[in-house]
Amino acid sequence: MLDLLNLPGIEPVDLRSENGSIVIAAQYSLEGLPICPSCVQPMYRHGKRVTVVADTPMQMQPVRLEISRPRFRCGACGTMDTPELPFLDERRRATRRLVDAIRERCLSMTFHAMSQQTGLAVNTIKNIAHDLIADLERTVRYETPIIMGIDEVMIGGAYRCVITNLATNNLFDMLEARTQQHLKPYFAKLPNRDRVEWVCTDMWRPYKNSFEAYLPNARLVIDKFHVVRMASDALEAERKRLQAKLDKDDRIKVKKSLRWLTLKRPKSLSPTELRALDAVRETYPALALAYDFKETFYRIYDDPDKASAMRAFEAWENCIPASGLDEFRSLARTVRDHYADIFAYWDSPAQITNAYTESLNGLIKIANRNGRGYSFEILRAKALYAKEARKVGSVIRLIDGGRPGVPTTETRKPVEYGPHIPTLVAMSESGQLD
Ligand SMILES: [Zn+2]
Question: The pTM is what?
Answer without folding.
Answer: 0.82
